[in-house]
Automatic annotation (TrEMBL), chains A, B:
One of its GO terms (molecular function) is chloride channel activity. Keywords: Membrane, Transmembrane, Transmembrane helix. This is Plasma membrane channel protein. The chain crosses the membrane at residues 179-201, 207-229, 288-310, 322-341, 369-390, 434-455, 571-591, 606-627. One of its GO terms (cellular component) is membrane. Residues 13-138 form the Anoctamin alpha-beta plait domain. Pfam families: Anoctamin, Anoctamin_N. It comes from Endocarpon pusillum.
Length: 739, 739
């Protein structure tokens, strides 16, 4: 039992905290909505407590106290899992001791309580949807952090190189499978990176850049990693008992149906929306992608052009400063356009009107991936496949960018593009760019993700403190929310109020970041073999900083189930495929240290380029097939366990039906039929056979009964057969003699 | 009830006929083995009758007569299906009236009886394995043809253009799903061919050969067809209730395990064979494929070289005769080598030692496909991609083949290869070859399949008759097997004896034939747009001739279940993919009517060829993705039904558990908690709140109980919350005033 002093760290059995924010303008509405909330929670059997919150908020604490009701919820959920195939064994009937037989981990408990709070009343929940409809005053629903566990994670993991499977399990037990999949992915990726980093480093030392050997190993590594992760994913799903949970589709509340029909067979109410209409709406993705490509592409190309113009054509004053123009342009405009396009993508996905959360997420992910693909890789693609082969052709046209430096140039000559034949490309440009994206940008994003929010938050807290102390000085301050707190609850409530101000953690954006990072590796790592080393170091920190983000900078996430990292898996597969093409092209074009096969990039033969790409891609496809086959053959402990469980279920069921024809009944079958036949000892000759037949003809009437009545019982069949054999053998013996 | 005269057509309720062949040398063994057979059948509850057969054979007739036992078999099978997910609804318990509730179609009855005869005693069967171990005397097990239905099929289908879904269902009901899938595939293929044939004919008239428009439509058609068939397959599986039956794996009797271990969890006996060892054995496929490619390739290349030498270099006497040398060589040697390689492939597949029939079949199919791929397409590939681009380079080397015509040539000049620059290729060669393979060879194979066996069989019957009448004339003939027949059974038994002499029908070889045919369409149809027309006509006949083969030239097949056409589906996908490459290459190379882009085939640009291939392949991949997406969105009657059924099962189960928290219990929850709270009417001010708190502190001891004890019941929570809101609003009003 927790001692009274531990109160700030303990969660006091609280499952969820609801932040109720009311508008000071409408007192009656504030009160009646609050009453509705408390009653709705009580209706589904949840116990509540209310405390004061910051500003115009109340904190409603919720716990599933009634054991009988919660047991029923658990049992129902297990039955649903079983019916959808997410669970092998049928749950034992009787709800009294579900929890003692198969205890719940915290994440499962939180998931089920969340379901009680949010699922539709028709499904047995309170139907509370934060910021939506009648529940607009409910600002958020969140569970409380497990402070001790969070501290343990932070301190322990900082000392470790690898997380153990138990660490990942503990993430799953406390934050749910969706986040645990992210950690498992990061961990597997990190583990795989060690080998590639070691190999990449050796290649860098021994073979230099654009090494074919490194390129081949890199591609192979990508294939093996992706295929292995697929298997790992399935394995974890079995380990965590979430296999097939994606089959349990969660309906989207925003889904707008055209009409409600009754299914003619089941009587189920179906919310119908025509698939053709959705297909038409999905076709809007094509103009969207074109729009995004044009918008982002133009920006990136322009900046690229300006940069080349300034760094390689312009040679007037202030060159070292002016060279940053494009970077400034990119860093200011790119996020703006991206944000705009993402918002547009969200709108579009909403317009496509998906029925389930999964379908929505998948559609959204594919759009986000396209946007990220353009912003992340287009620059390098331009350098590798436009600047290098065509620079001498394109450079003369760059003088349109002279406008950007006109105010600084002293004369026209400083901005004159050189004639095509004298221009030489800068072979280091590609490598520098790759290094920028795989080292500098990674460090920057890490900083942006963790350090900046930390500083911002500290700043705001300070600002608020100063503000409130000023107001106090003026004398007219509202009492702080902690004014009414019980002394022993003060520390605890302060923590809750702090957690309520934190943002939500979004695992998808972290996953996206990792996928984009993987893309640099699969697409361009041949340019600079140290890429995996950089990522190795980065990802060690990434995992810890994500842990810090989840535990300290965000509200504790609401546990969600998952049986995969979802649509990002397809993105990984696509990047690996594309990698087989770009790597081959890059290695061919830059073999001989970045200046083409015969020393000059203009000597690139299109047919040789295409042939290397074609060969590389098809080798990739073959290798993928082989790797898949081999990996699918490998067995794992968890898979074995699952098979065993399935076998047990079947065996038990078949034993229960008790239908096996066992030896005893069999023997009795034969003896009874023998005795009914009766002719066992009778000597049956051809004569007696005919007698029997005649007899039968008299007795029976249809051909069928006559046919089957000739020999009665197995013993007679046996006897007749033996006689026939003997007759035949005699006959053949006679024939032989006769000859 | 059947009239006595109908006896030859009726099957007299017989389920199976076993042909028991004994050796005249060992009488005792013949008798004891026969006794064992009859007893084993009686043991599992099968009724038997015995009759005389041809030569040294007996005919053992089997029927599942005991209703109780057969009901149990049916019930057990349904439970097994349900446990493996091949069946949605759990079968009703109680075996008495399984058959009245869900009657069996003939194919299912036959399948189950066959299981009773052949499955292992441990699984409740008689364990009879024809020609194997102790059952070596059992020559064959076969069901009897349904004569009336066969006649109906033959006459009705000959008058129809399309089979109706009911016709396919009737195949399924009588011959099982595996064969029905073949018919459904043939039918779908035929239906799709109509469109392509019409388009191909118009293209032939309007656009000539090597039309890009035709090529694009052809590729698209292939993609749509393959994707549609996948869907159709799934749809039929639902319609026939065989979805997921492939999950019910049938063990192979020939499987050799290294050791038998007990599973530590389930106690199940596992026949263990190391997967790594199998993988090593599978690696032998690589040398096998190389061997096959070399053996078949050398033969085909040699014949190809000789043919070109004779037809295009040699101009001595007998040219018109000598030109057939390669054809004669091919037609004699190719089948020999193929048979040898197939036998080798079978050995190899057996050596790979698969545990299940499915895995074995899959491995065997892939090998057979490779062999067929080489023999069917290599010749055309040589013409298109070796002869056309490189003929002028290679022709001078052809003089090694002058040996073949040396005896006939009058002087050296007649066999002299022309110098490279004067040699012109024969642009019609490719087209002629495609026409040969898609018209002539199809007709030949049709004839070989149906007409030849008919003639052979008629011949043998005649020969036997003549022989026996001669023997009779000599006086020493053994009595004919019909000597002892009951007069009314004579006609019937003659039919059975005839059916016993027929061969087995192998649906795989027919499927293979169709896949290879599809390959010509996807790979080379751009060469000659009339290919689909030829196949359209051919396949109309093919379906009827296959029906004839099944009903008249083979034993009635033993029904097998399937939920797909199996590994051939992959072959179709592969051929479509490859088609996107070859079609692009062929169209590019032969654009401008067979002589390359600028009039001469030597003007083929490698980069342009590679670029067209690369583009075509990736467009194919994109189109396939789009087609898949669209087709997956389409709903069908059967799918809807299946979903409805699944929903019903879930609904029923959840209703049975009766766990939904309904309005009534909910309301009682709230009222009970309100009354226990009791403070509903009490006016709670800040003062009274604190009193309450102090009171609680005295009563309880842990922080948790103290925290949750502050407000008792939902009503008090509501009251406290309302008070807090009021306090806050007052506070903020005061602050405003203060300012």
């Amino acid at each position: 039992m927790a001692s009274p002093s531990a109160s700030a760290e303990s969660n006091l059995d609280i499952d969820y905290v609801l932040v109720y924010r009311f508008s000071p303008q409408d007192k009656n509405k504030a009160i009646s909505n609050f009453q509705n909330l408390v009653r709705a929670l009580a209706d589904v059997g949840l116990e509540t407590e209310v405390r004061n919150g910051e500003d115009s908020t109340l904190l409603v604490f919720v716990k599933a106290a009634d054991e009988k009701i919660f047991n029923e919820v658990v049992y129902r959920s297990r039955v649903r899992d079983w019916l959808h195939g997410a669970r092998q064994a049928q749950p034992d009937t009787g709800t009294e001791n579900v929890l003692t037989k198969e205890p719940l981990v915290p994440a499962e408990r939180l998931r089920l309580v969340y379901d009680m709070i949010t699922s539709e009343p028709s499904e047995g929940g309170a139907g509370i949807t934060p910021k939506h409809g009648v529940w607009e005053n409910v600002e958020s629903i969140f569970p409380l952090h497990d402070v001790r566990l969070n501290k343990e994670w932070m301190t322990e993991w900082a000392r470790k190189t690898f997380l153990s499977p138990q660490d990942i399990d503990s993430v799953r037990d406390n934050l749910g499978e969706k986040i645990a999949y992210y950690f498992a992915f990061l961990q597997t990726y990190f583990y795989f990176l060690i080998y590639l980093a070691a190999f990449g480093f050796s290649c860098w030392v021994l073979l230099g850049y654009f090494s074919m050997i490194y390129a081949v190993v890199n591609c192979l590594w990508c294939v093996v990693f992706v295929e292995w992760w697929k298997r790992q994913e399935a394995d974890l799903a079995v380990r965590w008992g979430v296999r097939n949970v994606s089959a349990i589709q969660k309906g989207r509340r925003e889904y707008q149906y055209e009409k409600e029909t009754k299914d003619p067979i089941t009587g189920e109410t179906v919310k119908w929306f025509p698939a053709t209409q959705r297909l038409q709406r999905q076709l809007l993705q094509i103009p969207f992608v074109i729009l995004a490509a044009i918008a982002l592409g133009t920006l990136i190309c322009t900046c690229f052009g300006i940069e080349i113009f300034i760094s390689e054509v312009y040679n007037g004053p202030l060159k070292s400063v002016l060279v940053f123009i494009p970077t400034v342009l990119l860093t200011t405009l790119l996020p703006t356009i991206s944000t705009f396009l993402t918002r547009f993508a969200t709108r579009l996905t909403e317009f496509e009107n998906y029925e389930t959360e999964d379908a929505y997420e998948k559609a959204m992910t594919s759009k986000v991936f396209v946007l990220n693909f353009i912003t992340s890789y287009l620059g390098i693609f331009l350098t590798a496949f436009v600047y290098v082969p065509f620079a001498s052709v394109l450079v003369p046209y760059l003088d349109i960018f002279s406008l950007t430096v006109k105010p600084f140039a002293e004369n026209e000559k400083q901005m004159q593009t050189p004639p095509a034949y004298t221009f030489t490309i800068n072979p280091d440009r590609l490598r520098k760019q790759v290094i920028y994206f795989t080292v500098t940008a990674q460090i920057l994003s890490l900083a942006l993700e963790t350090v900046v929010p930390l500083i911002t938050r500290k700043g705001t807290t300070k600002f608020k403190e100063i503000q409130s102390s000023r107001a106090e000085a003026k004398g007219g301050a509202a009492p702080p929310p902690s004014a009414n707190d019980q002394p022993e609850e003060k520390a605890f409530l302060a923590r809750v109020r702090h957690e309520a101000t934190l943002g939500d953690y979004d695992v998808t954006s972290d996953l996206r970041e990792m996928c984009i990072q993987f893309g640099y590796l699969s697409l361009f790592s041949a340019v600079w073999p140290l890429v995996p080393c950089s990522f190795l170091i980065n990802n060690w920190i990434e995992l810890r900083s994500d842990t810090f983000k989840i535990t300290s900078e965000c509200k504790r996430p609401i546990p969600q189930r998952a049986d995969s990292i979802g649509p990002w898996l397809d993105a990984l597969g696509f990047l690996t495929w594309l990698g087989s093409i770009t790597t081959a092209a890059v290695v061919y074009m830059f073999s001989n240290d970045g200046v083409g096969p015969s020393g000059r990039p203009s000597d690139i033969k299109l047919w040789a380029l295409l042939l290397s790409v074609f060969a590389s891609e098809h080798i990739y496809l073959l290798v993928r097939l082989a790797v898949r086959t081999v990996i699918s053959k490998l067995d794992s402990e968890n898979m074995r366990k699952e098979r065993a469980e399935r076998y047990m279920v079947r065996k038990r069921y078949l034993e229960e039906t008790g239908l096996s024809v066992d030896k005893k009944t069999r023997h009795s079958l034969r003896t009874s039929s023998a005795s009914s036949g009766g002719g066992l000892t009778k000597d049956i000759t051809r004569k007696s056979l005919e007698d029997e037949a005649r007899e039968t003809t008299l007795r029976e009437s249809t051909p069928v009964t006559r046919f089957w009545g000739r020999q009665k019982g197995w013993a007679e069949v046996e006897q007749v057969g033996v006689n026939l054999i003997e007759l035949k053998l005699e006959g053949s013996a006679e024939t032989k003699k006769g000859r």
